[in-house]
Specification:
- With about 170 residues, the chain is mainly alpha-helical.
- It folds into three domains: about 40 residues, no CATH class; about 60 residues, His-Me finger endonuclease fold (3-Layer(aba) Sandwich), CATH 3.40.1800.10; about 30 residues.
- Helices cover about 50% and strands about 5% of the residues.
- A two-stranded antiparallel sheet has the order 1-2.
- The protein starts with 20 loop residues before the first helix and ends with a helix.
Length: about 170
């Protein structure tokens, strides 16, 4: 039996509701009221390959240096846009303005690793470009309780290390 929503031709999910799964979900999301139009039909699968076939095709493409470079550029562009809202051009402007160096330690990106975009986790506002170690450390320092415990730990261990060295020096 088909969905009872006018214009929908999908099979209904169960007799209790009389709706297909898509129309029932739209009704739920719309506060229990059916919207004026039925849910769109599901798009046909545009990937003729199986997951294994896609993986094999991807592996073959990664062997070709030009396809690999194009894939990596697309991936980087999408990651920048999704994670920080920046374009490659925005990133390059920031990189050039900082002289290609980390804003904290002034070291250039290490090896193939480029500088990463640092942002405020509360406001999502982009700050500067940092190397991976500085960005990771800054993430810990933003937590005041962690920072205080780390300072106390270093202070206590520095004093005990100095004390142990004095004892060792006196004993010899």
């Amino acid at each position: 039996m088909n969905c009872s929503f006018p214009g929908c031709t999908r099979p209904q999910e169960n007799a209790k509701h009389g709706l297909c799964a898509a129309c029932r979900m739209r009704k739920h999301r719309n506060g229990g009221v059916l919207p004026l139009t039925p849910a769109r039909p599901k798009a046909p699968n545009t990937y003729p390959l199986t997951p294994e076939g896609r993986a094999a095709q991807h592996a073959a493409n990664m062997q070709d240096p030009e396809k690999r470079k194009a894939f990596q550029k697309r991936l980087r562009t999408n990651n920048l846009r999704v994670r920080s809202g920046l374009t490659i051009e925005d990133y390059q402007r920031m990189f050039d303005a900082q002289g290609g160096k980390c804003a904290i330690c002034q070291n250039p990106g290490r090896g193939k690793t480029t500088l990463v975009v640092d942002h405020d986790h509360d406001t999502n506002k982009v700050r500067k470009l940092l190397c991976v170690p500085c960005n990771r450390a800054l993430g810990y320092f933003e937590n005041p309780e962690w920072f205080e415990r780390a300072q106390e730990y270093l202070h206590n261990n520095l004093l005990s290390t100095q004390h142990n060295n004095l004892i060792t020096v006196r004993a010899s």
